[in-house]
Amino acid sequence: MPKTEKPKILVVNDDANSLFALTSLLTQWAEQEAYEVLAARSGQDALRQVLMHDFAVILLDVNMPGMDGFETAEAIHQRARSANIPIIFITAFLADELDRLKAYQRGAVDFLFTPVIPQVLHAKVAVFVALATKNEELKRQARQLSQRTTELTATNERLTREIEERESAERQNHAKDEFLAMLGHELRNPLSAISSAASLIGLPGVSADGVGRARKIIQRQSQHLGSIVDDLLDLSRAMSGKILLNRAPLDLAALVAQTLETYRATGRSADYELVNDLDPGWVDGDATRLEQIASNLIDNALKYTPAGGRIEVRTWTENDDVVLSVRDTGVGIAADLLPHVFDVFVQGSSTLDRAQGGLGIGLSLVRRLAELHGGDIAADSKGPGGGSTFTLRLPRIEHQAAPAVPPAESGGAHGGAGRPNILLIEDNDDGREMMTMMLSCYGYEVHSAADGHEGVAAAARLRPDVALVDIGLPGIDGYEVARRLRADPATSGIRLIALTGYGLAEDLRRVMDAGFDRHLVKPVDIDQLTEAIGGCVRVPVRQ
């Protein structure tokens, strides 16, 4: 701790002898009383001392030339910092009542008459020194108390913050634990069904109808697994900012209408009253991602609305926004859950979501995709049983004329028995065998290779019309396969289709830069694959 300064006494007198006498008297008691003595020869000198020091008491001569004692006292007490310094006037004359009144009005606390009696001077000075010492001690205690209070407040805030962070971490860990348990459950269900169906097909005596049903189960559950993986990958990419939008002007109403038509055509909305009111509204967006938003919102409404319920889908323009609203008459959202419906993992841990199945990350993905488009998404509900409404807002752009789409040709490049020859370059044995069998069933002549080097050699030897190339190949990867085939005049005319598990926009660019004609993300549906093959051979080769 810093050393406490001793109280100071200022003696002001223009007479050198009187000044010396008073300071000498005071100095002999200075060590005993623990104070310091300073001297001033005039009122101006006294004011300079007051500017530099704090004083326990000032002994001020009344009769001084120039600035007398009364004027000096008034000047000292006009300054805020020295306004409360006690002043004892010293005079050689008996002061009448008017002089005393004038002195007290200037802030005097007492009078001493010369010749000064040492014992009286000692007693009076000791009182003010003691007061100054006590005041300084109180100030020091007050500073310590303030500092301690500040430290305790900071400690309390830190503890509160640590408690909140710990509770938040515990909640997040609990939510993640539930999510992982849920993910395991969601993956095991379709895997169990696929395993059972595959075993059933191999059993002796199984009926043709049983085999057909088992195949449909395998197909349906494989699609379900693919959708789970897609949701996880999309959410991970969106949260890490790795989704790049392929923007283009589009009419949101037309996109939503197409999405609704898919639901009606597949019968997914058959048990509901699905109504729509779609006013045109143009946005600059990624059609695939906006369809994903619309599908997630409609799926959410179907999931939480009992059969026979009503689902309303509307689009309209409002100021500078294009708005999509999906309203249902379903189970609604509790007030405590409503602020968190777009949070990652939160919905997945709710009992409602678990009762309906799914990972509960669809709305988190919707919010992130909306933000990437410069928009936002909001949820509203009257509570349990009151239904819910989700409202998407996207920045509106001026109306754009729809680009003319050339009519698609029907059939493959050669049609019927003249289908293009296929080279499949795939290192996964099961995947290569199953795709070869499927394409063969559709009438394609298929050759295969198990790695990149073998694939380049097979392409040079067989000269296929189309090469299906897996990107993650051993030896040389699919990108290098494409570059080598394009660089060789003998194989540069082969149509190249990339098969990959990577679906980001930058992955698409890298695929196309390597010389591929098309880019398909695994798992690839056979209809999607045959369409890609047919479309690929109808257009000029990319060089």
UniProtKB/TrEMBL annotation:
Mode of membrane association: Multi-pass membrane protein
Source organism, top-level taxon: Bacteria
Catalyzed reactions per annotation: ATP + protein L-histidine = ADP + protein N-phospho-L-histidine
Compartments, as annotated in UniProt: Cell inner membrane
Alphabetical list of InterPro entries matching this protein: CheY-like_superfamily, HATPase_C_sf, HATPase_dom, His_kinase_dom, HisK_dim/P_dom, HisK_dim/P_sf, Sig_transdc_His_kin-like_C, Sig_transdc_resp-reg_receiver
Modification type 4-aspartylphosphate: residues: D61, D470
Any single GO CC term annotated in Swiss-Prot or TrEMBL for this entry: plasma membrane
Main location: membrane
Domain (Response regulatory): residue spans on this chain: 8-129, 421-537
The protein's name in its UniProt record: histidine kinase
Organism: Duganella vulcania
